[in-house]
Amino acid sequence: DPCCAAPLPVLGRDVTVPLVTGGEVTYAALDYAASAPALQRVWDDVAAYAPYYGSVHRGAGYLSQLSTDLFENSRAAVAAFLGCREDDQVVFTRSTTDSLNLLAAALPADCQVFVFETEHHASLLPWRDARVTYLDAPRTPDEAVRNLERALAARDPHGPALVCVTGASNVTGELWPVRELAAAAHAHGARIVLDAAQLAPHHPVDIAASDVDWVAFSGHKLYAPFGSGVLAGRADWLRAAEPYLAGGGASRAVARRADGGVDVEWHETAARHEAGSPNVIGAYAVASACKALTEAGFESLVARERHLIEKVRAGLAEVPEVRVLSLFGDDAPRVGVLSFVVDGWNSSHFAAALSAEYGIGVRDGLFCAHPLVRTLLGGAPDEPGECGAPEAAPGERSLNAIRVSFGAGTPDEHVERFVRAVR
Ligand code: PMP
């Protein structure tokens, strides 16, 4: 029974925290959506390589050669994990935020961008200097596709266009209809980038099969917390763009000009956007996590996570004061990410109590998706407010929410303790 597969070993399983009620308890990390704990396997791989650390692409010596091989092999491992097409490039970045900003900086002239208002700020904001259209929050996956089709049909059909969409929401955990949105984008001559920050750790991502043009994700949410992220996909826009950062590694040849200036020939490979000494440990850690997840098998990871989601959902359903937040309905398929409010409770106080009284780490606030959370809480997406805004009085509408999230390393006991604590 794949549901009964053991959790993958992660670091921090034996951390104990003091409780205000006295004594101590093992820490229950239920904030995977912010940063997941490192897989033991990732830690072991990094520790085994660390003594041989050297500069990438820069040295003739043995350790430099070893590091270069490791870095380039990591790129190949990530390409395999994502199901990249032959011509796709895999660029190592710092994070999803960095990856999407890179793509925003590489947009062709006059590119129109289409993005749902429900996106995380990392996928909502980088396009603000482009001709961007923000799409209203859909209430079903089909409505998402229809909203996009309507907007694309009305666009100037001659110029380039890009759609940016999340694969799984960092607020509701709900899965978005990526394949259908990709088909709609392509039918209207647009490209599509998938924000897979919350999808990739929980669900297989197949760039070729889902026919998306680019995928972005972060190592620290994929059990590889060493400062690396990924942008993978079509090479043409990346090759045509100015380098994201100017510097060594991105340039193939540099020469003084007769008029006193400097001429540069930039690389056309992924190195074009990786100026500076690459984070080889970060890249290696991401590749190690990709391999570990593939070896564990997504079928078993998804089944186990579904079993945990059901426990949380069933447990919360028994508490009448709890309202789970969802765009597509409470039963919509989701990854192990779920937000809720508790009638009469300040969400920040509630989250603090879970920590202080039960040793459970969750997150409260607006989760860097202000327009979405405001909509889900019954407000308007343009309502002003900040993370950690003062909470409503009992009976009033909540102004922020509580998020519980988990994944491959989560034992049943953590979600059982969470449900007990909420009760
Ligand atoms: N997109 C989504 C859906 C996310 O959940 C996050 C992180 N919360 C990001 C983008 C940004 O990721 P990072 O902070 O690693 O850049």
From TrEMBL:
Gene3D superfamilies: Aspartate Aminotransferase, domain 1, Type I PLP-dependent aspartate aminotransferase-like (Major domain). Signal peptide: none annotated. One of its GO terms (molecular function) is transaminase activity. This is Aminotransferase. It holds the Pfam family Aminotran_5. Residues 30-418 form the Aminotransferase class V domain. Its cofactor is pyridoxal 5'-phosphate. It comes from Streptomyces longispororuber. InterPro entries: Aminotrans_V_dom (IPR000192), PyrdxlP-dep_Trfase (IPR015424), PyrdxlP-dep_Trfase_major (IPR015421), PyrdxlP-dep_Trfase_small (IPR015422). The keyword Transferase applies. Keywords: Aminotransferase, Pyridoxal phosphate, Transferase.
